[in-house]
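Exam revision sheet. Question 4 asks you to relate a sequence to its structure. Input first:
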Amino acid sequence: MHPDFISIGPLTIHSYGVMMALGFLAGLGNWILLGRREGHSAQFCMDLMFWVILSGIVGARLAYVLENWAAYAADPLSIVRVDQGGLIFYGGFVAASAAVVFFVRRHKVPMASLFDFVVTSVPLAHAFGRIGCFLNGCCFGSCTKAVPHVRFPQHSIPWYSQIREGLIDSNAALSNPVHPVQLYEAAFNILVYGVVVWLFRRKGRPGMVTGVYLVFYAIGRFSLEFMRGDRADRLAVMQLSIGQFVSLFVLLAGLAVLGYIHHNARPDGVPHA
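Answer key, structure tokens:
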């Protein structure tokens, strides 16, 4: 854990913000490389990234604040401190998707093809974001005796959470061992990134990459949520977190996209116009 990347006098740059910025840069670099073959200029990619970043951060932060409103009601000014962590991926994904629709209408490009293009960078950027979560101590894992595991230091988010739950006392130097679930999800996202880029390069049916991404990520996210140690601090229904319910919806959406593509393809594999 290393929440503060660097401090210069009163200015502190947080590791979460650094990793988030690196994730966006990596995503932009991926778009520029893939975009050359698609006829998308670097300027096109940068314009697209601007809208995705802006809408994605606002949506992700809004979703997090709503899910944790009790913590923000007493200190509304902290809502804007996104550099300290506190984003929900699905909120950002929905808002960024709306921005892509806006971009499609503005530039008059095929919607399914552009979503496929956009999706190739999503898991790559998300992997950097999850590493940022690990460095920040947020989105931590549940207690475990398994290997691998990690223990967070005093005054970290997991340490405070375990004190509240009575798992450790206030004199403990470290938290109890927990799953490094943030790193699990980072590794999973890198795997998904490899899959969607491979599919994108194969030039399959428009929408295929998007559908596969939605299915893969939903299954992974639903499963990894069981290893989260912050479940008690988040909204839940019938022992499932809100993130898991959203994952089920995203899974169905992904299956619907793939089913639509398959149903509307001609025998030669080309979608109907």
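Marking note for examiners. The chain is about 60% helix and 5% strand.
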